[in-house]
Every structure is written in structure tokens, then in C-alpha cells.
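hey so u asked for the seq, here:
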Amino acid sequence: MIVKTGRFGQLNVSEEEIISIPAGILGFPEQTQFCLVDPGDDVLIIWLQSMDQPDLAFPILEPKIFKPEYTARLSAAELRELKLDNINQSAVFSILTIGEDISLMTANLKAPLVINLREKVAKQVVLQENEYSIKHPMFKELRQHLMTISSNRKATVDGRASSVISVQAIPPSLTVKSLQP
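ran it, C-alpha cells below
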């Protein structure tokens, strides 16, 4: 299907690339169908694009990139909602806030997006731990990670176009932990 977006133009999205978020994203409960978009740059930030609202796209990033010790502990009810019988079939992303000054970007570590990679169903989970913030400053850590990657990479691909990311191509993040022993 062709999806018109405000940020990426028209995208060709197959049924297998659609992620269902039955409860929506906090503040956007009516938006339940999304796809992941790689903007074609080397910044590692991908976008959670609404299938129904062209101008609604959230920048997301795996929190392990800038906070290696990050874990998301899910309750049994959350695991059931996500249809997760194996926590190794999930990926976890933080929703970013990027303002005019990119160096002030923050990540919401308190309410990550957890995706069941097999079932293509996701949920924004509000973690009970008090150690995580909804506005974690992370630009410095991301920049350091990008500098490490670029020093390890000799060739770059110029002029890449935006593309939809297949959910099956995302490796499990191993960030989800069950509250159950």
C-alpha cells in the first residue's frame, strides 16, 4: 500500500511491515497503525510513522545505544498484551524529543515502546522504576556512539533515500526483562 507522509513523501508499505499499537502512543490513542522508516542518514534514529496521519511521525532510538545498562521490566499483564511468550523476540525503543537545538534532544526512558517482532504488535509501556526520566539528555552519548561508528567505517553511502524497515529485520534488543522470577 502507498502511504503519504509529511516527512518522507510517499512510501510503499507492505502488510508485513505494519506494526499495530492497539492502545496507541501516549497522547495519540486513536493512532494504532504504524510503520518504521529509515530516513537514509547515518544518525541511527528511525521514525515511527503513522499509517493514517501523514504528519505524525515519532523519532525513536534503541536506548542501549546511549544508555548501555538500560532495561525495561514488564509485568505479566504487559507481556500478555504484547503476546510475548519469549522476551528475546522483542525490541525496545525510546521516543525522542528533538527541538530547534539538536544538542538538547532528550529520550523518554520512562515510557519506552516495546515491539513484539514476531507478532508485529507494540505497546508504549510506562515503567514502574523511578530511576528513568521522560526527558533523559542523550545527545552527547549519541554523538560519541556515532563518532565511534564512523571511525570504524571506511565507506559511506551517499544519497540514500528513506525506506520502510521490515520488522523481521530488527534484531531483538534483549532489553526487556520480565518481572516474573
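The chain has two helices and 13 strands. The chain has one domain: 2-154+162-171.
lmk if thats what u needed
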